[in-house]
Amino acid sequence: GGALAREWFALVTQSVCDVGRGLWRNGKVEDVGLQINPWSGMIHSDHLDWYRFLGRVMGKALFDGIKIPNAIIPYIYKFLVGAPLSLLDLKQCDRRYYDFVKTIEALAVEGGNDDGKGGGGDDDGADAVADLGLNFTLTEEDPFGGETYVELLPGGADVQLTRHNLGLYKECLVRYLLIDRLRPQLTELFGGIHEVVP
């Protein structure tokens, strides 16, 4: 019956999505949902099999019209249906990066927009964002104390961040943090769903 199937889906997803298993982690923002653990491969050599399995379970639940009780962070569902991701999705995932980008945006506005009183504007050459000396890279710490240096686009270490390319930087940052670093896990999750739901 329906109740037995719902209970089975609840128990299976609860087990697979248990943060103690290392495949998922709690969101950096409270009450948003579980996030894929980007370091799941350091914990389980067969981690991708687990994501494929969960995808199949999600696909079967979708096919049968059963709601899955575990709360996965909403942007993953957006990704699965091909909806564009934005800075607001990053805010749900990691508030630190969101706040960093908002600070850079504020500098770009202060240093680049004409206030209508003369002076300022794009033609004065001032670029408070470029003055920070940042580029299209980031350094991530893994849970075991190691660091990973990441170029957000090819040659990113040689691309200075300015107010003029801030939009591209935001796109690259969102793409890396929400998709690229999780691509193996997302591919398996998506593939598992599509094995059941064409």
Q: Give the overall form.
A: elongated
Which value, in Å, is the CA radius of gyration?
21 Å
Percent range of helical residues: 40-55%
Structural class: mainly alpha
Spatial order of the strands forming the largest sheet: 1-2
CATH architecture label of the largest domain: Alpha-Beta Complex
The main β sheet shows up as: 2 strands, antiparallel
* SS elements, strand count: 4
- Overall structural domain count: 2
Secondary-structure element series: HEEHHHHHEEHH
Beta-strand content estimate:
5-15%
What is the CA-CA span between the terminal residues?
25 Å
> What's the CATH C level of the largest domain?
Alpha Beta
CATH topology of the largest domain: Hect, E3 ligase catalytic domain fold
Low-pLDDT stretches? 114-124
GO molecular function: ubiquitin protein ligase activity
Keywords: Transferase, Ubl conjugation pathway
Protein name: HECT-type E3 ubiquitin transferase
EC number: 2.3.2.26
